[in-house]
Amino acid sequence: MSEGVNIIEKKEIPSGAIMLFGFPDVGLVGVIAASHLISELNLAEVAYLDSKLLPPLIVLHEGLPHSSIRIFGNNTILLAVSETAISADTIYPIMYALIEWGKRKNVKMMISLSGIPIQERQDIEKLKVFAAASNPEMLKMVEDKGIEILKEGYMVGPQAIMLQRCAHIGLPALTLLAQCFFNYPDPEAAAEVLKELANIAGIKVDVSKLLEKGEEIRLRARDVMKRTQQELSKMKKTQEYDIPLYVS
Amino acid sequence: MSMRRRRSIFDIIDEYFESFEEQVERLGEALIERPSWNCRACTMEPLREVMVTPTEVIVTVDLPYTEENTIQVKPIEKNVIEISARMRRKIRFDDFGITHYKGEFQTFHCRTRIPVPVFMEKLEIRFKKGILEIRLPRKHEYTIPIE
Known about the structure:
The structure holds 2 protein chains of 2 kinds.
Chain A: E1 5-9, E2 18-22, H1 29-41, E3 44-51, E4 59-61, E5 64-66, E6 69-73, E7 77-82, H2 91-104, E8 109-117, E9 129-133, H3 136-144, E10 148-149, H4 158-169, E11 173-180, H5 187-201, H6 208-212, H7 214-220, H8 222-234
Parallel strand pairs in A: 2-7, 2-8, 8-11, 9-10
Antiparallel strand pairs in A: 1-3, 3-6, 4-5, 6-7, 9-11
Helix pairs in contact in A: 1-5, 2-4
Chain B: H1 9-31, E1 37-38, E2 43-44, E3 48-52, E4 56-62, E5 72-77, E6 80-92, E7 104-113, E8 124-128, E9 131-137
Parallel strand pairs in B: 2-7
Antiparallel strand pairs in B: 1-2, 3-4, 4-9, 5-6, 6-7, 8-9
């Protein structure tokens, strides 16, 4: 499944780290949170993803080419982040490759940072964060930390594939989902998800700068959000609003 | 019980062609890739969303840095509204680390097509947390009688 996707390491990768994912999704919650983690924790690029499945696109930083999907890290954290929307038909091979790579590096847990869209979002003062897990032990752990469980429903996107794959291979994994706008970048939701990340994994960062720069982030993220909307539409993201029919 | 309004065949043909032209125009808008900014007009295009409910159409627009008293919403056709708003500060490409384009922006501007008939004159707006919300009551032009 992950054939054709290579992860090129630039630095020595620590064993036993926590692996985080911040990919473009509703409200760009994961990407905004990941970007804040990278700058606050001074995470360095340790690896990048190379694949012909990706669109013919590079990201230029200081005139030099970079993959749009990179892994940043330090001794305790590995953070996979994508700077552009991932097309629906490449999510499976990309996520499988990243998960297999993480497993080879003996990561102790995988956590995906994302959002869950809510209508009338602008009227909500206190955003909730929900969690879903790959096994009952992880579920109990987040419940003990006071996080509400996303009990029933559909999940669409990279975080869905991560949970299912990690459940299959027996790797502890969590998805944290902050209530957010569907189609607008949501730095407040990113701040909430980071607070719960600190609660669960002890990865603490000051989110005040993220909130102060909220308007700048919303302006800067417009184009990535627009591209992400197109991909979310292709992967039928609105299915998350559907009421599920469970067959017991 | 409400009655269906009688229309001539010419009205129906005219409406059909109008609708067809609109569809072509809408498809063109969706397919043509263009930047989200316009250097000549010094404007940026905001993100927006249109939602149709049984009673109204709700348009929301993301307007960071916007001064509330500068927001303008104008109906320019029976199914198109034009939105503009001024930002509190000028935004330059330099602010985003981009040096290969030159230009500065201080205004958001966009036009949005309303997909169903509405009472344009009854539009209501509110602005909260940088999100503009425009509510337009729906116009149910024809009712088919149930016998």
